[in-house]
Amino acid sequence: MKGYIAAVVMAxxxxxxxxxxQAAEKTAQQQKMAQCNQHASTQNLKGDARKSFMxxxxxxxxxLSGMTPQQMKMKSCNGEAGDKKLSGDARKTFMSSCLKKA
Length: 102
Hints:
single chain; 5 helices; globular
């Protein structure tokens, strides 16, 4: 049944004019957007400051597109820990918790 569903989804993607690579690329872009959005929220950015931050963050994140999702998550969590100026046991606890999040 799972194979059938996967085939139907893939056929829909291809029929819609998107290649499998484009579908995966969109997912990577969505990941980048979510990570940048999370960083902006951590910093309580609003309005133009948030727009500017998001623009710069997405430019930086696009350079990291060769990274695995786990590497990107590690970088994101590490950045958040740095933004919060965490160190020692507090940083270890935060990193552990952050990396466990979906």
